[in-house]
Design goal:
By secondary structure, the protein is of the alpha/beta class. It contains 15 helices and 17 strands. The strands form four sheets. A ten-stranded mixed β-sheet has the order 5-6-4-3-7-1-8-16-2-17, with helices on both faces. It has a three-stranded mixed β-sheet with strand order 10-11-14. A two-stranded antiparallel sheet has the order 9-15. The protein is globular.
Length: 524
């Protein structure tokens, strides 16, 4: 029950909030609903083409509350109130929910989830590219339990493939596309225990260069894991933490170059200037490593040295689209997750807005006729916003009233746990005494933790393009790559693929429509 004090405060605030004049007219809402209804009715004609191309956008930690808050932020960055704004992913016609638990964890991590939505098999927390028979940190449980990803299936089908991320290219999400590791933290051999090395397990950076040697595009951070121990970084010469980490003395960049055919055009770049100077029509293979570790937050990004996610996606697509057989591209907005773990909601939400920008860029460069695009998250966070804020309230602003318990103001954004828990003189910190709009402000949390945790609720799956309607309800997370493979006629389930082209056979459309309406259990 809301106290009379809060009712009065909320009522006063909302009475003074701005309501657009057009929204006072009931016909505005009726017409809007009718237009939405017309668009929904058009969806009865299903797109049953074969997906020549598949793009998967993965917002790491992008739970539903993050999507909503990012929508408002996007609108406010364009000087609107924000709530009525549409993200690019909001425009996708099909939406589902994904159950994110790992085989051994109610609240999951990014490694086990990546194995699910890339390899089609649920796995244990902390493991990548292996089944649940592999136990975390136990190298000797790996062999024989490896599972392959949709990136591998696409490459085996003759398609071009790419990985673009704002984290290290050997971080949890991208690594499940190519690696098989009992521990997501085995970035290089420097991070591996002696027993794992002696048992023959390989670090993830090594596997990136050796497991699938012909990945066409790889972009993100993680330079230091490619070079011998203490090798000086090309950009941060005086930073010891940026130096090479490898104990085996390997230069994986040189190895990457040596694996590429001489008649192909291979390019390694380490900064934005080099990347944007490339002519994608003359690039066959691209490796771009723009930071020693993870890439910088979008709000902190150096425009001279670090490309944005949108820029990386555009370059990747210009290279991958040259293949007449099509492509698979994995794009990760990976630092949404990092911002939340640090309690820095402003950083996290700006990362989400930039990923949405990249989604729009990809949409402008492809067609729904032959490109399936899926946007989802691996897991959520204990991130929330509330407090009866009025329309147009800054997403990073204060609630319209003070607490009726400690008489102090509070921000709309809060965390269930994390580093923002602060007590001053035995009481909750008064946020009006700090700069809560700062880029690195850590929102208050209910429970003190050095790092905020993931959330366990379902996450959204947005889909458009061929067979997007197969993502339509509440699904296990490992279902997602099976849909993408089915749509693009790759992997093991090819019975429905009477033609490799969506346009070469007039009879293909009705056939695929019939199969699409069958339960997948009957065709897998």
């Amino acid at each position: 029950m809301i106290s009379p004090f809060l009712v009065l405060a909320i009522g006063t605030c909302l009475a003074n909030s701005f309501v657009p004049e057009k929204e006072k007219d009931p016909n505005y809402w009726r017409q809007q609903a009718q237009e939405t209804l017309k668009n929904a009715l058009k969806l009865q004609k299903l797109n049953t083409n074969v997906a020549k191309n598949v793009i998967m956008f993965l917002g790491d930690g992008m739970g539903v509350s993050t999507v909503t808050a990012a929508r408002i932020l996007k609108g406010q960055l364009h000087h609107n109130s924000g709530e009525e704004t549409r993200l690019e992913m909001d425009k996708f016609p099909f939406v589902a929910l994904s159950k994110t638990y790992n085989t051994n964890a109610q609240v999951p991590d990014s490694a086990g989830t990546a194995t699910a939505y890339l390899c089609g098999v649920k796995a244990n927390e902390g493991t990548v590219g292996v089944s649940a028979a592999t136990e975390r940190t136990w190298c000797n449980t790996t062999q024989g339990n490896e599972v392959t990803s949709i990136l591998r299936w696409a490459k085996d089908a003759g398609k071009s493939v790419g990985i673009v991320t704002t984290t290290r290219v050997n971080h949890a999400t991208p690594s499940a596309a190519y690696a098989h590791s009992a521990d997501r933290d085995w970035y290089s051999d420097n991070e591996m225990p002696p027993e794992a090395l002696s048992q023959g397990c390989k670090d993830i950076a090594y596997q990136l260069m050796h497991n699938i040697r012909d990945i066409d595009v790889i972009m993100g951070g993680g330079r230091k894991y490619m070079y011998p121990k203490n090798r000086t970084d090309v950009e941060y010469e005086l930073d010891e933490k940026a130096r090479g980490t490898r104990l085996d003395g390997l230069d994986l960049i040189s190895i990457w170059k040596s694996f590429k055919p001489r008649h192909k055009h291979s390019h390694y770049v380490w900064n934005r200037t080099e990347l944007l100077a490339l002519d994608p029509s003359k690039v066959d293979y691209l490796l771009g490593l723009f930071e020693p570790g993870d890439m910088q937050y979008e709000l902190n990004r150096n425009n001279l040295t670090d490309p944005s996610l949108s820029e990386m996606v555009e370059v990747a697509l210009r290279i991958l689209t040259k293949n007449p057989k099509g492509f698979f591209l994995l794009v990760e907005g990976g630092r949404i997750d990092h911002g939340h773990h640090e309690g820095k909601a402003k950083q996290a939400l700006h990362e989400a807005v930039e990923m949405d920008q990249a989604i729009g860029r990809a949409g402008a460069m492809t067609s729904q006729r032959d490109t399936l695009t899926v946007v989802t998250a691996d897991h959520s966070h204990v991130f929330t916003f509330g407090g009866y804020t009025p329309r147009g309230n800054s997403i990073f602003g204060l609630a319209p009233m003070v607490s009726d318990t400690d008489k102090k103001p509070f921000t709309a954004i809060l965390y269930g746990n994390g580093p923002g828990y602060k007590v001053v003189d035995g009481e909750r910190e008064n946020v009006s005494m700090v700069d809560y709009a700062h880029n690195n402000y850590q929102a208050q949390s209910a429970v003190p933790l050095r790092h905020e945790t993931h959330g366990g609720e379902d996450v959204a799956v947005f889909a458009k393009g061929p067979m997007a309607h197969l993502l339509h309800g509440v699904h296990e997370q490992n279902y997602i790559p099976h849909v993408m493979a089915y749509a693009s006629c790759i992997g093991a389930n090819l019975d429905h693929c009477a033609s490799a082209s969506s346009t070469s056979s007039p009879a293909l459309g009705p056939l695929l429509l019939l199969l699409a309406l069958l339960p997948l259990s009957t065709v897998f």
